[in-house]
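User: Hi! Is it possible to get a structure for several chains at once, not just one? Here's what I have:
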Amino acid sequence: MRAALQLSEAGLKTAVLSKVFPTRSHTVAAQGGVSASLGNSEEDHWTWHMYDTVKGSDWLGDQDAIEFMCREAPKVVTELEHYGMPFDRNADGTIYQRPFGGHMSNFGEKPVRRACAAADRTGHAMLHALYQRNVRANTHFFVEWMALDLIRDADGNVQGVIAMEMETSEIVVFQAKATLFATGGAGRIYASSTNAFINTGDGLGMAARAGIPLEDMEFWQFHPTGVAGAGVLITEGVRGEGGILRNSAGERFMERYAPNAKDLASRDVVSRAMVTEINEGRGCGPNKDHVLLDITHLDPDVIMSKLPGIREISIKFAGVDPIKAPIPVVPTCHYQMGGIPTNYHGEVVVDGKPVHGFYAAGECACASVHGANRLGTNSLLDLLVFGKSSANSMIDFIKQQPLELPQLATADVERSVARVERLNKQTNGVAVNDARTAMQRTMQAHCGVFRFKDMLAEGVEKILEVEKMVQKTEISDKSSVFNMARIEALELENLIEVAKATMISANARTESRGAHVRDDAPDTPETPNGRDDANWLKHTLWSREGNRLEYKPVNLQPLTVDTIALKTRSY
Amino acid sequence: MTAYDPIELKRIRWRSRRGLLELDLVLERFFAQRFDALSPAEIDAYKRILDLPDTDFLDVVNGKADLDDPEEAAIIEILRSV
Ligand SMILES: Cc1cc2nc3c(=O)[nH]c(=O)nc-3n(C[C@H](O)[C@H](O)[C@H](O)COP(=O)(O)OP(=O)(O)OC[C@H]3O[C@@H](n4cnc5c(N)ncnc54)[C@H](O)[C@@H]3O)c2cc1C
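Assistant: Yes, the chains can be modeled jointly so their relative placement is included. Here is the combined structure:
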């Protein structure tokens, strides 16, 4: 919507397609805030923000894009304020800023207040401000339309998308001079995810099918404690208040992994211990696929006063009252760092060159500012900065194009229609739910928060088997009107592309970096924490055809300042 | 019981896909367990609730806020119980 606004305000005819009403996009879930070095509460600089982002990315982020984002941040946040975003304010009327993990002053010295929020509804408020403004600018919204495939001509130039109106299942071509994907993440590839059901990585699936590689898909951020089977987060405050993690034998296993900090050890240490317990057969439940978070020993008054909402979440989503029984928890996928490869202008880049007419921004894109690990609040910022910059690139590009649209290339349209036909005609096929569950279990078990060599290798084989299931999905409801079964089957065809990209890229990257942590990456003086800069300081590019992997260098050269030199990442 | 427009029912099912995971989970259960037994008037009330922004909707489901309309409040009671 940030891009659409820029385009409409420039007087261009702009269509926004969305599967759901735009203000019900998953961005509504973002509570924490959006970062910008406004320095309203204390001294701050974009160079400090940049340093934190590069360090957070474990040096896999491209420093030109990171500089661009951090420099633009104060501008785009101020613009958003002018669009009517109800930011929390200081007494003097300026935007109030709060501290957030990883935000530091003076190149990592001490915490700084950099996050701007609108109460606990930052994402919601942002969607509303942008939607209202778009309505005013005459952006044309096609709500409850699902894009199915990208249309490219023989030279690879993008001509638009083919899309389905959900109400009628009618398939229509949207031919455009420029096309932008802002389709969000694909967290639903995992069995346990904080993402809403809508996050099926459609843009990534469409790009992959159109021959565009996906970048750095092995990097996913996980949270240690989501309710097993549901994904709803249990705040880390629960361990802070004395919550204890236990395995199937009831053992407080963190004593073995972190004898001092125990259950209060850092996120990655806790996640790693949980996964090790599960892998070694000490998981709980019929599938031995989670551990337990025990607060039964705490005073119920403490639970109610210090951990508000936890009891309700646990009763509602885990079916247990945590005052009486422990909560089943599992490391839970949260955010996708990789995506469609772009530069900081929002142009999709393949083989070092922009793909004419194609742009991407937000969680589906990889600029790459998040590298191997995203800094909290940088993803809402990513939407604003790259939404705007990609729209500016689109405006320039469209100006250079002839007035008339070119002849429509029909090959991709035919392929897309055939894909839907196959689904409609399939008999003796696989149920969509079965194929989806198989994919999610495989990803969770073989390519979760902590990864093992043999499990990954086996995971590659398994996910290719699941792909065969997805190719044979069958739906019993063949009706045309709001056919949810068909929509879900088509979404699964996108998810499976993301799942393959993730598994295959993770299997190949034999180091640990940021959110990709492997058991077999040795911690040596040359490879601290398993990070192997000599061999792996590079971006992965996975192509659908033949599951080919290629690599491209990380851009360590910022635009105007000196490079932020490689260092071991420690907090 | 008068039959509800089947097309409208399917539209309602799709619009029950929300931006927040918690709502998706609650509504999924609601459809599996309770939706089929609702009267047309109750379905109308549910439809009105679907117009709430996700954040307000979740607050109501979590009991942090209430709805004034008695028909809508009755549906919310069901959502709180599934
Ligand atoms: C619980 C939670 C809390 C978070 N908190 C924060 C935070 O505090 N700060 C922060 O910076 N980040 C946060 N994040 C991350 C951040 O919210 C997301 O990365 C960001 O909102 C993604 O925005 P997006 O615009 O890329 O995608 P989305 O908001 O998911 O929007 C995608 C849009 O694309 C449409 N779409 C998708 N596929 C199709 C298709 N095939 N056809 C038509 N339309 C389609 C959808 O309908 C939707 O409108 C949080 C994430 C979660 C899960």
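Chain A touches chain B at residues 19-21, 23-29, 121, 124, 128, 144, 166-167, 193-198, 230-232, 309, 312, 316-317, 479, 481-484, 487 (CB under 8 Å). The mean pLDDT of chain A is 95.

User: Great, thank you!
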